[in-house]
Design a protein that fits this description.
Chain A: It is found in: Cell membrane; Membrane. Chain A: Belongs to the complex I subunit 1 family. Chain A: GO terms for molecular function: NADH dehydrogenase activity; oxidoreductase activity, acting on NAD(P)H, quinone or similar compound as acceptor; quinone binding. Chain A: Its EC number is 7.1.1.-. The complex is a heterodimer of chains A (about 325) and B (about 120). Chain A folds into two domains: about 55 residues; about 260 residues, no CATH class. Chain A has about 325 residues and is mostly helical. With about 120 residues, chain B is mainly alpha-helical. Chain B has a domain of about 60 residues. In chain B, about 65% of the residues lie in helices and about 0% in strands. Chain B is flat and about 70 Å long. The chains are: A mainly alpha (about 325), B mainly alpha (about 120). At the A-B interface, helix 1, helix 3, helix 6, helix 7 and helix 11 of A face helix 1, helix 2, helix 3 and helix 4 of B.
Chain lengths: ~325, ~120
């Protein structure tokens, strides 16, 4: 075991906390610009310390556990929600050499571990003993399991093309053309399903402020609440990284510009995905709950199954088969 | 990297993931005030006193969606190894590999169509 083994993940965690701090500020700024207002600009120059002030405030707030709550589960839930969010980052290849665990089943690991968070959300929702949070948690669970199916099925086409579940192999298979081109349908399904998995607008029904107060974390205060929020933003980081690796060629350069290091290419594409998530949030209205569930099962699921067979058919066509 | 080292990496990631909340909440305990009162411990319900239990009954349709999820999630587990091995199977067994999966998925789609027709997928 070398030093990198122990220090690497700690450095990643610190980077991640930095990312989350400034992603929240960036999100509020972007939404502010789109809505023609300045966004946070009071704390520090350009609002740079806004999120830090928010975190400090959360840290200093009293921790209230409702009298009727299931105390043990109530305290455990934020941890259950956060741990998988961090654990999935172990398999993301940031560059050729900068990856923590090189798994032959990296993609499967990501998908399997990331669904554990639903249990954390549901635990928190149930343990609060609050009607709003229970409803929010049930909605959240129903939405996340419904959209997980198209999310998982949409990448089968990529697995067929690559013949591997190793994220490294998947990135390297995109040397000729990024998968966003031959697997465009899969990309659309994946993008929509990942928005729903992240509980972000237009799929933020579990947290619909105007309907459910705050969803599954109504009763949470202070730092326990902060960990639910942190888990959510760590998932933004993870999902944007995964999208970059699966569809945008990971660290591979564009136009043969190999003098720019891979990590910069990765960051560039990653930032583009993160920006798109915020952009969509500012643009789209929230879906109705009946539209939400039907869309997953009646539109996305059949389309993602179709994508598998389209990939298989394109493999048979001589002109196209080199891309599939 | 060997498989063993990869598993240790994941164990370290999980340990760190547990450590961060535990450390942060412990440090928070030293910093934050603690003045519990019976009013604070009341469950929140839009500012009025809560009526009845918080653990209310919820609709059976959640259960139906969970069932559907299990069916299609198990299907995915069968699809992934097939997708990984597709190219080599196609080379040795021929196009039958595709037909077999078509039949398998066809049966499940039939199930989905049945659920659709029975209005299980409808959310009122």
């Amino acid at each position: 075991m070398d030093l990198f083994f122990y220090l690497g993940p700690i450095i990643l965690m610190l980077l991640l906390l930095g990312f989350v701090t400034y992603a929240i500020l960036f999100e509020r700024k972007v939404i502010g610009w789109i809505q023609n207002r300045p966004g946070p600009n009071q704390v520090g120059p350009w609002g740079l310390f806004q999120t830090i002030a928010d975190v400090a405030k959360l840290l200093l707030k009293e921790d209230i556990v409702p009298g009727k709550a299931d105390r043990a589960l109530f305290k455990l839930a934020p941890i259950i929600a956060f741990v998988p969010a961090f654990a999935i980052l172990a398999v993301i290849p940031f560059t050729e050499s900068w990856q923590f665990g090189d798994f032959a089943v990296g993609l499967l690991y990501y998908i399997a571990i990331s669904s554990i968070t639903i249990i954390g959300i549901l635990t928190g929702a149930w343990a609060s003993n609050n009607k709003y949070s229970l409803l929010g948690g049930m909605r959240s669970a129903a939405q996340m399991i419904s959209y997980e199916i198209p999310l998982v099925l949409s990448v089968v086409g990529i697995v067929m093309t690559t013949g591997s579940l190793d994220l490294n192999d998947i990135v390297l298979a995109q040397k000729k053309v990024w998968f966003i081109v031959p697997q465009f349908l899969a990309f659309l399904i994946f993008l929509i399903a990942s928005l729903a998995e992240l509980n972000r607008t237009p799929f933020d029904l579990p947290e619909a402020e105007s309907e459910l107060v705050a969803g599954y974390h109504v009763e949470y205060t202070g730092f326990r609440f902060a960990f639910f929020m942190l888990a959510e933003y760590v998932y933004v980081f993870a999902m944007a990284s995964l999208t970059t690796c699966l569809f945008l060629g990971g660290w591979l350069p564009l136009f043969g510009l190999t003098m720019i290091p891979g990590i910069l290419w990765f960051l560039l594409k990653f930032s583009l995905v993160v920006f798109s998530l915020f952009w969509i949030r500012a643009t789209m209205p929230r879906l109705r709950v009946d539209q939400l569930m039907q869309f997953a099962w009646k539109v996305l699921l059949p389309l993602s199954l179709l994508n598998i067979f389209l990939t298989a058919i394109f493999k048979e066509i001589p002109v196209l088969s080199s891309f599939y | 990297m060997e498989l063993e080292a990869s598993f240790l990496t994941i164990a370290w990631f999980i340990a760190l993931g547990i450590l961060l909340p535990v450390v942060a909440l412990t440090v928070g305990k030293w910093l934050r005030p603690n003045k519990p009162s019976s009013r604070k411990a009341i469950t929140y319900e839009s500012g009025v006193d809560p009526t009845g239990e918080g653990w209310v009954q919820f609709h059976v349709r959640y259960y139906l969606f969970a069932l559907l999820f299990v069916i299609f999630d198990v299907e995915t587990i069968f699809l992934y190894p097939w997708a990984v091995a597709y190219d080599s199977l196609r080379a040795t067994l021929g196009i039958w590999v595709l037909y077999e999966m078509l039949i398998f998925i066809g049966l499940l789609v039939l199930g989905l169509a049945y659920a659709w027709k029975k209005k299980v997928l409808k959310w009122e």
